[in-house]
């Protein structure tokens, strides 16, 4: 059996130096974001996580994309005011930067917020319907994915809105993003996915990632299906500060193995960790890594 890898889902908390930003604002200087990215990535490295991300520190996971795509205007929420078009790489520079200081044995996941989630998070002032908007987002994200794959080991598509129901064109949306992409793809859908499992199992991705720690009832629901996809098992909560003990995480992973067997290829937090304190997020990752080592028999 291949060893289970430890991973993050995406976002990670950082401590923003507000004074530095205010000073820079008055001097009309741009603060480099590199140290924030480094601070998030260093925590992931120091905890021992195998598959790390850029921590999505720049912006909330919707704005990271809508700030750089044509047709979007960021207000309280992003407003769609024109046709969505790709306007050049969005997260690629950050991945290149991370590659300069991480060890070669670490894997990097490139994160893409999915078109359905972007559509549902924005105020549509331009398109006739959400389907057209979603497909234009998907086409733009495909251009990003094709460049991104050169710098990462796998791509993660984040579609939390799928948990509320997947439209009949959901599979086609994911197909549109990954056209021409040859690295492995992980689809993360947090929330209660019990009503959309058949659609998820049909998705053209390699790994499904769900919130099994906060929603352990998903074990029983998934158990009713013949799961032929690999699984990234949510194993520590992202919405609670209590730090799960190593034993608790080990037992959770064993429960997952009872149901999914060696389909479990990754263990991770339930979701992005941005809502947690930095020190808490770090300790959760550290215990996740220790639990992974026990499961892998190291
Ligand atoms: Zn999530």
Can you offer a commentary on this structure?
It is a single chain. The protein has 298 residues and is α/β, with parallel strands linked by helices. It has one domain (5-295): TIM Barrel (Alpha-Beta Barrel), CATH 3.20.20. It is 39% helix and 17% strand. It has helices at residues 18-26, 34-47, 63-66, 92-99, 115-121, 130-148, 170-178, 197-201, 217-223, 246-260, 278-295; strands at 5-6, 51-52, 70-74, 78-85, 107-113, 123-124, 154-158, 185-188, 207-210, 230-236, 264-269. The strands form two sheets. It has an eight-stranded parallel beta sheet. A three-stranded mixed beta sheet has the order 3-4-6. Helix 2 (34-47) runs parallel beside helix 11 (278-295) and helix 10 packs across helix 11 (278-295). The longest helix is centred in the middle third of the chain and has 19 residues, at 130-148. It is globular and about 50 Å long. Zinc ion (ZN) is lined by residues 9, 160, 188, 190, 271-272.
**Beta strand count:** 11
Strand percentage: 15-25%
The first-to-last residue Cα distance is: 13 Å
Radius of gyration: 19 Å
Name the shape in a single word.
globular
SS class: alpha/beta
Descriptors for this entry?
298 residues; alpha/beta; TIM Barrel; 8-stranded parallel beta sheet; 3-stranded mixed beta sheet; binds zinc ion
How is the secondary structure organized here?
Layout lengths: L4 E2 L11 H9 L7 H14 L3 E2 L10 H4 L3 E5 L3 E8 L6 H8 L7 E7 L1 H7 L1 E2 L5 H19 L5 E5 L11 H9 L6 E4 L8 H5 L5 E4 L6 H7 L6 E7 L9 H15 L3 E6 L8 H18 L3
Parallel strand pairs: 1-11, 2-5, 4-6, 5-7, 7-8, 8-9, 9-10, 10-11
Antiparallel strand pairs: 3-4
Helix pairs in contact: 2-11, 5-6, 6-7, 9-10, 10-11
